[in-house]
Design a protein that fits this description.
Oligomer: single chain
Helix content: 25-40%
Number of strands: 8
Shape: rod-shaped
Radius of gyration: 63 Å
Strand content: 25-35%
Order of helices and strands: HEEEEEEEEHH
Largest sheet: 8 strands, mixed
Structural class: alpha+beta
Strand order of the largest sheet: 1-3-6-5-4-7-8-2
Amino acid sequence: MTPADRDQRRRAGAFFAAVLLAMFAIPLVARAHAELESASPPDDAVLDSPPSEIVLTFTEALDTAKSHMELFGPDGAQVAAGVADPDNDKTMRIDPPVLAPGAYEIKSTAFAAHDGALKREVLTFTVNAPSPSPSPTPAAPSASAAPSASPSASASAPPSVAPSPAPSAGGDASASGGDVILPILAALAVVLLLGVFLLRGRSRGGGGA
């Protein structure tokens, strides 16, 4: 084997060794960074109701002392902030207040716990304004509820008043007749007594003569 062949083999071996080293080094470098794996709500999401929580999940454990995120409202002011979850060091969480309709922005700063590599993310979502509820349509009156054309006679007729009984003419005549007869009978009795008395006086006078 000539020296040129040996030199060529050395170069080929060095090349393959460099390729193998790069193949093993690339995954290690990628694994050292905490990449964003998922977000809730997702980036560019359009929501009909405001989210009750905001959660970012990363591929690697985070440095909980340094990692944090902020939520900014439609006017650019900070609405809420969050840090790494102590129960899950791969996530950061925000429990926001009730959010008004508008566009919101999430800014996160993640430090990998393994090597302290920094990863920044900016995500957005929009909360839609609630749609107004339709006004209820008034129901058409049913045929049975329509007023009758002819009013009911029993409802419109005035209450009848029973006439008070008229005084009986015969009762008054009998009463007045009794008042007239009694004095006449009494007068006849007096006249009769006087007649009897006079007759007796005469009979006594005639016998004495």
